[in-house]
Amino acid sequence: MFGLKQYKVKKNERGLLLRNGDFERVLQPGKHWVYAGTDHIRVETFAMEQAAFTHSLTDYFMAKEPEVVAQEFVQAALSDSQAGLRYENGSLVEVLAPATRKLYWKGLNDIRIDVVDIDQGVADCEKLSAGLVATLGQTQLRQRPVKGLEGVLLVQVPDFHAGVLTLDGKVSGLLGAGAYGFWRYGRKVDVECIDLRSQALEVSGQEILTRDKVSLRLNLTATWRYEDVLKAFAQWGKPSEQIYRELQLGLRAAVGTRTLDELLENKAALDDIIAGHARDRLAGAGMKLESLGVKDIILPGEMKTILAQVVEAERSAQANAIRRREETAATRSLLNTAKVMEDNPIVLRMKELETLERVAERIDKISVFGGLDQVLNGLVKLR
Predict the structure, then answer these.
(1) 344 membership: H or E segment, kind and range
(2) Distance between CA atoms of 12 and 60, rounded to whole angstroms?
(3) What pairs with residue 16 in β-bridges?
(4) Which of 119, 122, 242, 366 is spaced 20 to 30 A from 256 at the CA atom?
């Protein structure tokens, strides 16, 4: 009646009264009588559960309605060198990027926005305080995720490790064990965790031709560690890959200049050559080669057969030589015995009796005719 119209705003809502499309006032919870007359009246309601005020009037409110903003909203107006941390009821719920301009409804939630200056050197690990890093780390475990975490790099460097901090592709510093956080806005930040303990490296399945054109497959194992991490990364982008390549090249150089027999006869020399090559190339590069060894030298199938035949022939020749030496020694012993018996009849007689004893051991029964003298004189005639 009389051009009045009633609008109701619930207790968990706020309303915007728009007359002919222009903002007139904010409606609090309750019933509101609005005189329309010939104007077009519209009321837009907003649920307080959604704290963010997303509307085309946001910039207008912040520029032209400071009293409305102060009464109804919490304002986030960040510069290009500032980031924001939005808390609801004491809990961090959002990380705000630089240059953010937003309004959040007051009333249902206790909203607080902390402004952080990010226009500092990223190498300063106190850029994000230990408390803030811990808070951001804990939020990753909550059921309700924190918005805007992509703007923060959180890093955990374990014990016995170091973190290589890279800013826009350039090594900026070295981090010890601990938790760190860095702003990513306007810069590319990366941290690579490096194990400072001794590390094993396998160079496997290397197909190499020897000097006498025999194809071999070799497996090499090595142990190495970092001596100066920053020096290693200043010289090479991927130090672990570089040491693998140096060992691979050293292995090829050592095998390619030697014959198969030389390799099989002295594997220790092969290890020394490869280690010497690698240490020369790694000198002053911040990495130390601690140990190295060729584990396997694998021959092709046909070469295995040929090598087995060679080994068998060598063993057979050695066995024949041993037999010949034994036969020669036995013949020489018989010759010496014959010379002794030729010069001494008593020794000859004893040898005859010894032979007779061995013959008698094989006979079960002996019939003697003519006495013992007949046995001796009949069986064994002496000169």
Answers:
(1) none
(2) 24
(3) 26, 44
(4) 242
